[in-house]
Amino acid sequence: MIILGVESSCDETAVAIYDGDLNTGQGRIVAEQIASQIETHAKFGGVVPEVASREHLMALPPMVDALLSEAALSWSDIDQIAVTAGPGLLGALLVGASYARAAGMVNDIPVLPVHHMEGHLLAPGLSGDLPAFPFVTLLVSGGHTLLVLVKSIGQYEVIGQTLDDAAGECFDKSARLLGLPYPGGPEIASMAAGGDATRFKLPRPMLNRDNLDFSFSGLKTAVMYAVKNAGGLSAMSATDRRDMAACIESATCEVLVKKSIRACLKREAPRLVIAGGVAANSALRALLAELAAANGIEVHMPHPRHCTDNAAMIAYAAFRKIMQGVSPPEEWDATPRWSLSNLS
User: Fold this and answer.
1) Residue 97: Cβ-neighbour burial (10 angstroms; 0-12, 13-18, 19+)
2) I need a surface site. Which of 50, 78, 94, 215 has the fewest CB within 10 A?
3) 222 is in which domain, residue-wise?
């Protein structure tokens, strides 16, 4: 089955073609393309929804044409269209959904709406077989930080989530305090290299509470006061900023990893998946591998390029759902707020 995936939930326009065998469950990415809007939004310090929608509108049609050409396929070769229907920015979602519906209608191809976070949950399957069920997924990005117990395809239980800022949002805000551009995660990771991660005493919010929820607004506030106590950004040396970045990264990663390990132990799920844009962070991946091994937990990580928003994961999620007998609903629409639990 050849599936065209379309992703436009936030600030990446992405398309991909996935070819899967419904009998064996095996498949491959035939071609994929991602157009990032980072440079467009960087001058605003974050994503501007209206600008994102217009960028998707301009980028999506020529990207699909180029993708089909790269794959040496035509519309008649496509068996299914899979498109992100939510959650995300409403205008951005509508661009992808409208394009997918129109293409499906013109070319007589069924269209399957896919939950954006379900795509992230299943993304490790793009690099190999999914781990055996059940497993816990840490889904961590600029807009989401949550722990999900994956019982089977379509059976998801959110067992922990952030009560305020997401981890990626904390990185963005902390980076701004250090005079770094948007997006903050990669900038902090780059600056943290070689820094002293013990120099500044930053909190590990909610780490010692016996639950699976997160909170990162206090960490961001602690960074603000640490910068002030150092005399302000203008008074900080390059070494000061490097050490601060290392401390921010260390505090965030420690909370994410230890909460994830706790979730696996509490729910007796000896397998852990990490997904979402922050999952590309090398320090996070290294600490997770170390502590998971010490606790007898098997870790599965998507390739870094499939941690950020992409259409291959949307096409793959559709493939796995079709294998489960899921068919396109008669009525659906873009849904900016869509709980994973509603899929169960």
Assistant:
1) buried
2) 50
3) 133-301
